[in-house]
Amino acid sequence: MRIIFVGPPGSGKGTQAERLIQYLRIPHLSTGEMLRQAVDRGTPDGLAAKTYMDRGDLVPDSVILQMVGHRLEEPDCAAGCLFDGFPRTVAQAEALDALLAERGLPLDAVLELEVDEAELVRRLALRGRADDLPEVIQQRLEGYRRQTAPLLNYYRQQGLLHTIEGSGDPDEIFARVRGVVDQLQRE
After folding, report:
1. What is the pTM (predicted TM-score) of this model?
2. Strand boundaries in 34-80, DSSP class E
3. For residue 109, what are the CA distances in angstroms to 36, 106, 112, 147?
């Protein structure tokens, strides 16, 4: 299965993504991690990305997509993968759709972890990180809403979006995630 996993900061997406990749036995494609590895290894994609990163610029979508395309060609992605942190915009989603279509690899689902904002703020404040100050938390949540809402609408229109209640303990949440994935596999 090829799945995109989205959720706001504090939703528990990292925990649930880790469980899901173990459950499905598919690789976790985090573009941030892929960028760091490509730069560390000095691959052509990494060298291209490094020129932007060294200047403090965002790595262009074209470089990210090329890197994702190369990663999808690796044997461990044959059975699927979990996209995390990408796509972040509708333009990136459209480009990913085109990349997957070129390779005959359909996207199976977009899983959204939905958590009440008050609960997100509480969870983030409990982490105790230096950047988890109330005003920073609000900025991060607002940025997520602004950036992600159009993306969710894009996938909703394609019939790929599955919203999962992200409140409760991690085992309860994963039972809901697994229920959606199991249903998709049966269809």
Report:
1. 0.89
2. none
3. 26, 9, 10, 19
Look at the block and give the residue holding tokens 């100050």.
133
Hey, how many other C-beta atoms are within 10 angstroms of the C-beta on 85? 17
Largest Cα span, the chain: 48
Decide: residue 43, CB within 10 A, 0-12 exposed, 13-18 middle, 19+ buried: middle
CA distances from 4 to 56, 111, 112, 181 (A): 27, 6, 8, 12
Q: Where are the alpha helices (DSSP H) in 84-169?
A: 90-102, 117-127, 134-157
Residue 129: how many other CB atoms lie within 10 Å? 9
pLDDT digits (tens), the chain, 187 positions: 999 999 998 999 989 999 999 999 999 998 888 988 999 999 998 999 999 988 888 889 999 999 999 999 999 999 999 998 889 889 999 999 999 999 999 999 999 999 999 999 889 888 877 777 888 888 889 988 888 889 999 999 999 999 999 999 999 999 999 999 999 999 8
Distance separating alpha carbons of residues 120 and 177, to the nearest angstrom: 18
